[in-house]
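Archive entry. Fields below.
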Amino acid sequence: MNGSHRARPDRATAAATAAALLMALALAMIFFYVPTDVSEGYSQRIFYFHVPIALTTYFLFTWGAVNGARFLLKRDISLDLKSYVPMHLGVIFGSLTLVTGSIWANIAWGTWWFWGDTQLTTFLIIFLFNCAYFMLRFSVEAGERRATFSAVYAVLGVGLIPLSVIGVHVAQTNDLIHPITFNENGANMDSSMFLTFLVALAAMITLSVTMYLIELRGKRIDDRLRAIRRLAGGEA
Amino acid sequence: MRAYRALLRKDLLLELRGRELVPAMVVFVVGALVLVRLGLGGERLAGGTRAATGLLWVVVVFTSMLALVRSFAQEREHGIWDGLLSAPADRSAIWAARASATFLFLGVTQAVALPLFWLFFLQDGRSPSLAVLAAALALADLGVAMLGALLAGLVSNVRAREVLLPVLFLPFALPLVSVAVRMSVDSIPPQNGGLDALQGLGFLALYDTIFALLGWALFEYVVED
Amino acid sequence: MSSPERTPAVRCDGLTRRYGERVALDAVSLTVAPGERLLLTGGNGAGKTTLLRVLATVLRPHAGEVAIDGHVLPHDARKVRPAIGYVGHEPLVYPVLTARENLELYAALYGVGRERIEQVLDLAGLNGRGGDPAGELSRGLRQRLGLARAMLHSPSLLLLDEPTTGLDEDGRERLRGVLAAHSGAAVIATHEPDWFAGLEHGRLRLAAGRAA
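PREDICTED_STRUCTURE:
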């Protein structure tokens, strides 16, 4: 018990350091190392923010859903926070995805929002799903029941994500080409671009893990404080 | 199986005696179609058959909300959950029965809505293929009913459930509607490529399969407390 | 007949149950031997109904151990449900369905033959009223229907929550008859323990979610 309490801050600090280093490296590579894209010019560099942020968002939702499923199976209430925190961070990264995606749409197609683009539309669906998750969570009193309901809805999201990707893709027959970053032959980029992209992705994921560890710690302190207050109130 | 049949009979009897849902859904769907018709302009139809077909699906989704919001209302209002939950029958039978009942209610409502849709919007002879539309509606209703029964169970013990249920449901309706609209619109002659109806139906069947599995597996968790 | 090695009908050890953050049952321990009838007493909000609902497998315990006939809840809930007859605050029936239709539904859920329906209608003194919608029955008759519902599958463990509420003299006599004929265990929450004189074997008083 004590050991794990001492270990947790260390993990957060280590993750924060790694995130800071990776982020600095990614920024340096994006602005000084990677060559300017021939067709879209200097502003295309937003790609190295947008795509890693979007992938990190999916990563966070999947993480939240997995911990939700684990809660349903094990009934360990600490898994509720471990499911909620990634979902919560998912909203932050999701908002950033929509903003950077909108900027990129403006660069690539000259419009702030383009409904013909499957990935923007898919992302919007997932984002609405996430907002609904929070509506549900705030409508239920804290406790086992809220944990259960949140977990069930998070797990449903695992069904929704692939359905949105496939559904939106199937529906858009007149698909205007989304700037394709990957195809069947692997990365559709030269190696310096791909390397920069990977470093940026690693930086974003490490950043999200750091935020996860820090927020989890904060939420746990909140919960303990509330438990102590309740005890004190009960004895008084 | 016996439990499922008895529960479905119960759900249908409740509707037959109480008439809480189907009459309201029918009146609502008629009103909504009139609203859409007026919204697309009085004499001349703005956007033509294509716009009307798309909006038909929007009306279908909003009408189904009506059916879902009242799911399990009797169980909640008269405290009957304890009786169903303490019985040894498989709890997913409750979900399956409720989904089947909703599916039937949606079917009845659409049997009224479709002829009206033809009357209001499709007088110029060009119309979506009835076979495609009917098949898409049946598969979409099935998905809505199965997911809806799960979500209705989820919100049945939550404050503000009437508001929350549409909010929870809507994101799941979006991929469904985007495919259903496209395949319905693309079945309007003259057909020039577009979405193949079988591909669209395949997607709807996939949607149904996923929420059949998730609903069946998760319902137990949403009703137990 | 009763040897100390026999598995208790109900065993709770440190049972805790919360609603949200409010603690409704706080580490309650009790044992009910096979054939024993235990009265639960205590004021409103003491946790009697919560305890019965946990035993009826409707609420899951949050801490502590609960076992019925040696089956641990909530894991083995499916195994114990056929053995439990639960009479709740509400009669647990659909008002727009007739008494008989309600019993037919529950007969299917419990896997019981239809012939049993007339027997329990008779047992509760509802013969002749089986075709009436449950919502049109008086409070007392609905309470009887709740009892008939609970006896449908001849349960070995009865869980009764204020079973005397609304019952007239005849209804009470029938309840007394049912309890006297019941050879299994029973847990009965009540505000009038004296009425059960001669039927009870033990009492447990709850106060603010704790055994007092």
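CURATOR_NOTE: Chain B touches chain A at residues 147, 150, 154-155, 157-160, 164, 167-168, 170-172, 174-176, 178-179, 181-182, 186, 193-195, 199-200, 203, 206-207, 210-211, 214, 218, 221-222, 224-225 (CB under 8 Å).
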